[in-house]
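Pilot study result, target chain (138 residues):
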Amino acid sequence: MKTMKLFILPLLIAVATQMGCASREGAYEPQNTTKFDLENRANFVLMDPGAQRSVSASGLQVRKLNDGRTEVAANLRNRENRRIQVQVNCEFKDEQGFTIDSSPWQNVILTENEQQTVRIAALSPQATKYTIRVREAR
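Predicted structure:
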């Protein structure tokens, strides 16, 4: 009986490794490439649940300055009946969507149900796309 167990155990291990570990060579395709990529597709994103609950953008505006740089403006609206503080920045991107300029995070205080326009200008005239990001200030 003991010799039978000693024989069956290695056999089961060999079968399990052959079935579960198929070897493959070469490159693998990326998975979930469109999952969690909102910053690649949207011009306005909220970076955390607190900002998502408290802030909305009632309007976005883009214009070219005299020197060719892009300036974006966002009407941020406090959706709550309390004073909040958020931080806003903008990722300016080239035509292909690669970030070429990132503005520093700036604090914005919104009183109860207030709407406020935030303007951010790119440093480089090559910026054609953008993503405005808002997060709760901590």
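One observation from the pilot: The CA atoms of residues 99 and 128 lie 10 Å apart. A full batch analysis is planned for the follow-on phase.
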